[in-house]
UniProtKB/TrEMBL annotation:
Name recorded for this polypeptide: STAS domain-containing protein
Pfam families xref list: STAS, Sulfate_transp
Domain of life: Eukaryota
Transmembrane segments: 116-139, 145-166, 196-222, 281-301, 322-339, 375-394, 406-423, 443-460, 467-484, 504-533
Broad class of the protein's primary localization: membrane
Compositional bias annotation for Low complexity: 11-20
Subcellular location: Membrane
Length: 706
């Protein structure tokens, strides 16, 4: 019962209970006018700066000048695969082989589809899947992440490719707001040069990798702490809407202008509805069949199939999904090739895929300054998504992941992959989930997947050239189900806290309407604004004695927590710093009925009850519970002391209880003892005990006078 929470904000109104309540206290107490008489401090010296200097020197010595003794440990830290490889058991191999093949089967259609989403040739998606999985297996610390192309990063890459390959045009919707920032592609039939598009994407990947390596070197992984779960949910749900929108033309077989920048989604849907009459019926039929097959397989056949397959001992603890995506691209390719859908019905197909790897090619140095802003955004979003997944499964399977080493791994995936026509990569939620359910134990499964992908790239990839783009678009749209269902988070979050729901909604709307990069900035700004708002107007609480015990709870919250006669116990639920110090003073003075303008006790106010006014006039002692005040800065300390002086001026006796030593140091340096009269107590109960003695003494003195 003593741990009941003090929920709900309070405007520091006084609640007068009709029930009589006398102070009932037992036990020893400590009350002194000097903090040093309450506690006996040691010769404490704040040596934060010298300790920080020693830590920096130690870091430089260990990292930059490693000794021979720590050389082996440093190599193991840089190449985490050595640790799990040393402890690898042969009994894990069958699970990893099955898992690797299963994940590789998913990566084929997803890689090709996300490459088209990024406005790149389909084969580049397979390059991303191959190189990112291989490199992460060597450098990553998570045993279960499946690296490769994902929808969010592919969309952001596609926006960059669009922006740098089409000319800017002045929009007509809101010219003053957009200021030529919305970009439309050329008319129907215009083709982006694939070589230049690949150069842009690979340079972007290289720049993203450099940013991630710098974040790792300077241990700046904490920047993702500013990306709350609420923000990530709203942001990824918003990008899912944009990804869905980008696939609608391929589903209907429309050739439309493509827009990048603020309000691009509005322009796109205007373009779609204007051209619906030009829908290619055969393409729409292919899309409908693909989507229906995928939904039926995932929602109905897959659960039934997994239930039946568990009867076999080999698959008892392994869940292998039906590879419906691969089945669709195989059937779609065969049907398209046999019926010549492109030639006879103008169904858009993947066209040239090619075979084998491209010659290694470095990034375009001249493009890097232009891409820096996008690279920073993609690097942060990638790290937030990947670390969220890595920590989730590390906690589930009870092992540790190193955030800085993870940044190194992501950077290596992007830098090395950029030389082989790869665009930025990240961990996929759907593939990682399949990775775990298929029984994957280590990154050995990723190496198996790489072997399978290598065969596809070298020998089989070119066979998919007749694949209709509608099949890949359908696969992407169905894969977005999990992200789109995050819309339910808005309702769930709103039931818990309205401010967090505002963060979700603002992030979602800004991402959908303004585009992904603006959505990121707006979401972060709104998230920080909510944090500041909570500190700017924190909770204030009037406490009462709880069931005649030494526990004190919120008087308005609990019917058996009574305010003590002649005593006001005030608690401020935040640090007192420059931007909320005035609110602390106003809340404190208002709680005991002091007029903020005159500094004197308020006279009868029509808005206040007679009982409340009498309660204000009967108060003689003020207790400020400092247990929730974890910091007082210079400006906050001055206003804190000013409030105490105003209370002394109104003849109130003031107590400070549970004051932290560093806050006391601040107040003492501001000469609190000289400026005002306060009594410091160790606990709230001690303050009440001292007031009991004081009131009893005053009562006896009045009796003796009569």
């Amino acid at each position: 019962m003593l741990g009941l929470p003090d929920e709900q904000n309070e405007n520091s109104d006084t609640i007068t209970n009709n029930n009589s309540h006398n102070i009932n206290i037992d036990g020893q107490f400590t009350a002194e006018k000097s903090f040093d008489h309450v506690f006996f401090p040691t010769a404490y010296e704040d040596r934060t700066s010298s300790l920080l200097f020693r830590q920096i020197c130690s870091y430089v010595q260990n990292k930059c000048l490693p000794s021979k003794k720590c050389g082996i440990s440093y190599i193991k830290l840089l190449f985490p695969f050595l640790s799990w490889l040393k402890a690898y058991k042969l009994t894990w191999l069958p699970n990893d082989i099955v898992c690797g093949i299963t994940v590789a089967i998913m990566q084929i259609p997803q890689g090709m589809g996300y490459a088209l989403l990024a406005n790149l040739p389909a084969i580049t998606g397979l390059y991303v899947s191959f190189f990112s999985s291989l490199i992460y297996a060597l450098f990553g610390t998570s045993r279960h992440l499946s690296m490769g192309a994902i929808a969010v990063i592919s969309l952001m890459t596609g926006n960059v490719v669009n922006r740098l390959t089409v000319k800017e045009t002045l929009t007509t919707m809101v010219p003053s707001l957009l200021n030529k920032s919305t970009i439309e592609s050329a008319s129907n039939g215009a083709i982006i040069d694939p070589s230049y598009a690949i150069t842009i994407a690979t340079t972007l990947a290289f720049t993203v990798g450099i940013v991630q390596l710098l974040l790792s070197i300077f241990h700046l992984g904490f920047v993702t702490s500013f990306l709350s779960d609420t923000f990530v949910s709203g942001y990824t749900c918003g990008t899912a809407i944009l990804v869905f929108t980008s696939q609608v033309p391929d589903i209907f077989g429309l050739s439309l202008k493509r827009y990048v920048g603020p309000f691009n989604v509005i322009y796109t849907y205007i373009e779609i509805f204007s051209n619906l009459k030009k829908t290619n019926i055969i393409t729409l039929l292919v899309s409908a069949c693909s989507i229906i097959a995928l939904v039926l397989a995932k929602e109905y056949l897959d659960p039934f199939y997994k239930k039946k397959i568990k009867k076999f001992k080999l698959f008892k603890n392994v869940q292998i999904p039906i590879p419906m995506e691969l089945i669709i691209i195989i059937i779609g390719t065969i049907v398209s090739y046999l019926l010549d859908l492109n030639g006879n019905y103008k169904v858009k197909i993947v066209n040239t895929i090619g075979r084998g790897f491209r010659k290694p090619q470095g990034p375009s140095v001249t493009l890097m300054p232009t891409l820096m802003k996008d690279a920073v955004i993609i690097a942060i979003v990638t790290f937030a998504i990947c670390m969220s997944l890595a920590k989730t499964y590390a906690k589930k399977f009870k092992y540790m992941v190193n955030s800085n080493q993870e940044l190194t791994a992501y950077g290596a995936c992007n830098i090395i992959g950029s030389f082989f026509a790869s665009f930025p990569s990240a961990a996929s939620l759907s593939r990682t989930s399949v990775y775990v359910n298929a029984g994957g134990r280590t990154q050995m499964a990723s190496l198996v997947a790489c072997s399978f992908l290598l065969i596809i790239i070298l020998r089989i990839g070119s066979l998919f050239e007749s694949l209709p783009k509608a099949c890949l678009a359908s696969i992407i749209v169905v894969a977005l189900k999990g992200l789109l269902l995050q819309m339910k988070d808005f309702y769930t979050i709103g039931r818990v806290t309205k401010l967090e729901a505002v963060v979700w909604l603002m992030t979602f709307l800004s991402t959908v309407i303004l585009d992904v990069d603006y959505g990121l900035f707006v979401g972060i700004i709104v998230s920080l604004f909510v944090v500041i708002l909570r500190q700017f107007r924190p909770r204030t609480t009037i406490l009462g004695q709880y069931d005649r015990s030494n526990a004190y709870k919120k008087a308005r919250r609990f019917s058996n927590a009574f305010e003590i006669p002649h005593v006001k116990i005030f608690r401020f639920e935040s640090a007192i710093i420059y931007f909320n110090a005035d609110f602390f003073r106003e809340s404190l003075l208002d709680s005991i009925g002091i007029d903020l303008k005159t500094g004197q006790q308020r006279k009868n106010n029509p808005q206040e009850s007679n009982d409340m006014c009498l309660s204000f006039r009967s108060i003689t002692h003020i207790i400020i519970d400092c247990s929730s005040i974890n910091q007082i800065d210079y400006s906050g300390g001055k206003i804190f002391i000013q409030a105490l002086k105003e209370l002394n001026g109104c003849q109130y006796k003031v107590y400070l209880c549970q004051l932290r030593y560093y806050n006391y140091d601040v107040l003492q340096k501001l000469q609190m003892d000289k400026e005002c009269s306060v009594i410091v107590t160790a606990t709230l109960h001690d303050a009440v005990h001292d007031i009991q003695d004081d009131l009893r003494e005053n009562h006896n003195n009045k009796k003796s006078q009569f």
